[in-house]
């Protein structure tokens, strides 16, 4: 039986209220958002393995690039020629990669209970939960913000007829935001953060 995320989150908050991770389940009351991206070997959550994780914090209209995650993992066995065509990451690029357990600890510490922003953010959350849940007994309880939904809800009022093009490159072009190191986790996380700030506040500020 599939348990709805809201019910599962409530159940896990109660179960982990006396654990070192209790703060992750508390409602977030600050003004920060974490833009997060994972590069993986497959777009299928069941088959994919994480190669790299990038994240950056947004504070108001500022993208705080000095507070970021840029994690490379040890190359998995599923890193084949076919998967390299998708993400352009070779085994040699991951020579200094860290173990998955260390990466997950860094992610939990960096994100905390802040909302998680991303492009197809539910995919990234599901990929992380695939490894977090067996190790910790819970999944990421954070609020998820989907960039394409934010863009759609704002742009649809300016579009007469037809569908809104929600492709990554199109959104970037429409918002006049340069794509930073496309198909790298950190580059995509920063680009998404800049697009989000442009949509919400106008011209973004990076620091």
UniProtKB/TrEMBL annotation:
Transmembrane segments: none annotated. InterPro entries: Ribonucl_H, RNaseH-like_sf, RNaseH_sf. The keyword Nucleotidyltransferase applies. GO terms for cellular component: cytosol. Its EC number is 2.7.7.7. It is an enzyme of class 2 (transferase). CDD domains: DEDDh. Residues 32-205 form the Exonuclease domain. It comes from the Bacteria. It holds the Pfam family RNase_T. GO terms for molecular function: 3'-5' exonuclease activity; DNA-directed DNA polymerase activity; nucleic acid binding. Keywords: Exonuclease, Hydrolase, Nuclease, Nucleotidyltransferase, Transferase. SUPFAM superfamilies: Ribonuclease H-like. PANTHER family: BLR4117 PROTEIN, DNA POLYMERASE III SUBUNIT EPSILON. This is DNA polymerase III epsilon subunit. It comes from Nitrincola lacisaponensis.
